[in-house]
Amino acid sequence: MYKKLEAKWNATLIGTRFGDVKGVALDRAQEGLGMVATVRNLVRPILDAYGVTGARGLYLSFATALLRHVIRQKGAAATAYATGLKAYFSTTHKLDPAILDEIIQVVVGWAIQY
User: Fold this and answer.
1) How confident is the model at residue 6, as a pLDDT?
2) CATH 1.20.58.800 fits 2-111, yes or no
């Protein structure tokens, strides 16, 4: 198996392919990182208002997971994803459903434009 991989692997060709798409990849990465940063900045005030300190990372994880799904799905599908993620995070991680509802409103309201 290794000999087949070694025979197919051409470092020059692979390097050229990566070089050709580098600009597109960097543009997409920058756009995605900007969206994540925006969601984090929208969610932090909610967490501050509720006095959340220890589980901030889990709430931010919920927000970014929600973002990942609602930028791909709209309408009823986005609602189903949000409901499922809320149930998962509130049950598994014992997060406050009221806070999750506010995060859903902020993230879905912001991301639905995309």
Assistant:
1) 73
2) yes
